[in-house]
Each structure stands twice: as structure tokens, then as C-alpha cells.
Design brief:
Length: 380
């Protein structure tokens, strides 16, 4: 009976890592005692200080969520200007551009690591372009050198949506040290979570002060409101959880790596799929396990996804639909499929398998079994 129950229990694509409750309770007692629950309290300040040290950066402003972290840097761009970005991302990336009256312009992605293709970005630049908003997809670094060169030559701000990239290092230093600004998400699904939260990483204390102004309604003092902003502040509760989570991050990363390596061993001889490689010189956080369904596979990605779901394995088609196919953006000139051949190809074939720190060997076997059964089933 226990085996049948296990087989009926869904295996979700991710599950949040939570620290021992008894480590969190003392922080809650301090909050109840101090009655400080928001407005840059001591736990928020301590979390920012620890993250600056971890990432070796000068500026870190924690936020109430990852979307706020994206929106606030975009507030600094000229209204109506164009921002070049990727269609192969979560909706928040492009929505953050659009909701501020900026114009998203899509560029294609590279076929190996799924970041923005540098030549496609350069081809998309116009006199109205103000910034590049690139995404470190699945935590894999973009071509940071190539994008930096394009941004420098054209006088553009280079912003990285690094929602997937907490703890990732590239060429021996934090990936968050590349670009003009990086943004993080601390959502429950991420490799580091504060239930909800995010951060803006900046290269200087002056830039940090500006971000802090914008996340506080644009209010600088009791009688001074120099800019338009909104409430992007993180609560003391979320910051307290973050301080505890930081103590466990490397342990959780090692557990994720164990799952990742197990999958690689179990799937390396599966001809119907391609395993995705990391960019060289990268220390990943193992927060995603994407595969590509090969073009000669007898089943489509969507058929495989559905068949796995029928067996209780909840994979995810990250990222489908492409944002260039979504209703708010499909009529943009840059959304034409012929301009985005790689994004459309990858978007139709990618599938992310379940991965989280305490994914047991028994559940991993269910995932692999369901995938292989779906790959080899007779076409519908």
C-alpha cells in the first residue's frame, strides 16, 4: 500500500528549502520584542551587509519580491525608450519593462547557454535604445564580456535579471559583479528563498542610495520627495528567514548537486534527449535541470510533458510560451518568429525536470522512469 501511495504522490518540479524551525524562532522572538517589523530594521540591514560580503559588492538593497527588484532599476530609464531583452524568460522580466511605459524589444538567444545572443542584441539597437535587460537563464552566465562590449560601445545600461543565479560564480568571482545592475529573486522556488523577496545589486554605495530612495516611495526625508518611487521594502520577517537560510545555502547547494549528478548518470545514455552543459569557468547553484527533447524524437516535448504528468511527475516547460508569443507582445515587430529562430526552437523542446535538495533516490527514479516511458511511447 505504501508503494501505491508513493506512486500517486506528485513529484513537483521544485520544493522550497526551509531551515529548522527552531533556528528561526529566536529571530521571531526578537521581532516580537522590538516591535520593528519593517522600514529597514536591524535584520534587513544585517542581511544586506552579509550579502554584500558574500557577493563582494558595494551595494545591496533587499526588496519585497523579485519583480520590485526588476522594476526599480528600470525606473531610472528614459520614459518611452527601448529595452532589449529576451523572449525566453519568465513573464516578470518583460512585464517589468512594459508596465513602466518602456518598450521591450526582443533579441534572439544563443543555442548553447540560452542567454541573449550578442550579435542579435547589436542588430536590435536603435537611437531609442536605453538599456539591455539580459537574463542568466537557469543561473548559467550570459556572454557577459560580449554584452559589456556592446553596452559600452553604444552607451547603454546593462542590467542582468539574475533571479536564477544566487551563489553562482563565473571566472572566480560572483556573477553579480558583472553589468551595471543585477537583480535577484528570493521567491520560494529559488535556490535561496526568504518566502518572498529579492534584491538589487549595485557597484557603488551611491547607486545603492538611489535604489534605496526609489524603494521608499521616492521619499528622502520628512519634507523631501525628489523622485517617484514605490514601496519595495523587505519586511523584518523575510530578512530574518534570509539570515537563517544563508547558514544553510552551501549545504543545500551540495544536496542539489547530488541530485544533478545523479540525473546526469541516469540519463547520459538516453539518445532522445540532450543534457544542457554549463558555461566553462562557472560554479553553478544547480537550481534547475533542463533537458532538450531532440528533434528526431518520436514524441514532441508537449506530449512528453503530458505523459509524465499522467504519471504524477510535474516537470515544467520553462519557458513556454515564449514572451514573444504572449498576447501583450505578439504584435511587436521584434516578436516575429523569423527573427527569433533559436528562442523558438529551444522554447519548443526544453523541459525542466524536478530538482530540489531533498529529492530522494526513490523519487528521482520515478522521474527518470516516467521520462523514459514517455520518450519511447508510441506516437499519439
Amino acid at each position: 500500500m505504501s508503494i501505491n501511495i508513493l506512486q500517486r504522490t506528485p513529484v513537483f518540479v521544485t520544493k522550497p528549502y526551509l531551515p529548522p524551525l527552531d533556528e528561526v524562532l529566536p529571530y521571531l522572538e526578537d521581532i516580537w520584542s522590538s516591535k520593528i517589523i519593517t522600514n529597514n530594521g536591524p535584520f534587513v540591514l544585517e542581511l544586506e551587509a552579509q550579502l554584500k560580503q558574500l557577493f563582494e559588492v558595494s551595494g545591496c538593497s533587499v526588496m519585497n519580491n523579485g519583480t520590485s527588484a526588476l522594476v526599480i532599476p528600470l525606473l531610472t530609464l528614459p520614459r518611452g525608450s527601448e529595452v532589449i531583452t529576451t523572449p525566453f524568460t519568465f513573464a516578470a522580466t518583460v512585464h517589468s519593462i512594459s508596465m513602466l511605459g518602456l518598450k521591450p524589444v526582443f533579441a534572439d538567444i544563443d543555442p548553447d547557454y540560452f542567454g541573449l545572443n550578442v550579435q542579435s542584441v547589436e542588430d536590435a539597437i536603435t537611437p531609442n535604445t536605453s538599456a539591455i535587460l539580459a537574463v542568466h537563464t537557469y543561473g548559467t552566465p550570459c556572454d557577459v564580456e560580449g554584452l559589456a562590449d556592446v553596452a559600452r560601445r553604444h552607451g547603454l545600461k546593462l542590467i542582468y535579471d539574475a533571479a536564477h543565479a544566487f551563489g553562482v560564480q563565473y571566472k572566480g568571482r560572483s556573477l553579480l559583479r558583472y553589468g551595471d545592475i543585477c537583480t535577484l529573486s528570493f521567491h520560494a522556488t529559488k535556490s535561496f528563498n526568504t518566502f518572498e523577496g529579492g534584491a538589487v545589486i549595485t557597484p557603488s554605495t551611491e547607486a545603492e542610495k538611489h535604489i534605496n530612495l526609489l524603494r521608499n516611495f521616492g521619499i528622502q526625508g520628512e519634507n523631501d520627495i525628489p523622485e517617484v518611487g514605490f514601496n519595495g521594502k523587505m519586511s523584518e520577517f523575510n530578512a530574518a528567514l534570509g539570515l537563517v537560510q544563508l547558514k544553510h545555502f552551501e549545504t543545500a547547494r551540495a544536496m542539489r548537486r547530488n541530485v544533478h549528478d545523479w540525473y546526469v548518470d541516469a540519463l547520459s545514455d538516453t539518445p532522445e534527449i540532450t543534457l544542457i552543459s554549463q558555461r566553462p569557468d562557472t560554479q553553478p547553484n544547480y537550481s534547475y535541470f533542463p533537458i532538450l527533447i531532440n528533434k528526431d524524437c518520436r514524441q514532441s516535448r508537449d506530449e512528453i510533458f503530458a505523459a509524465m504528468g499522467e504519471q504524477g511527475v510535474v516537470a515544467r516547460r520553462y519557458f513556454a510560451p515564449l514572451l514573444s508569443d504572449a498576447k501583450p507582445y505578439r504584435d511587436l515587430k521584434s516578436a516575429i518568429r523569423e527573427l527569433l529562430p533559436v528562442a523558438n526552437d529551444i522554447g519548443a523542446r526544453v523541459l525542466c525536470l524536478p530538482i530540489y535538495p531533498d529529492l530522494t533516490c526513490e523519487l528521482r527514479k520515478r522521474v527518470v522512469h516516467s521520462l523514459k516511458e514517455a520518450l519511447r511511447a508510441a506516437p499519439q
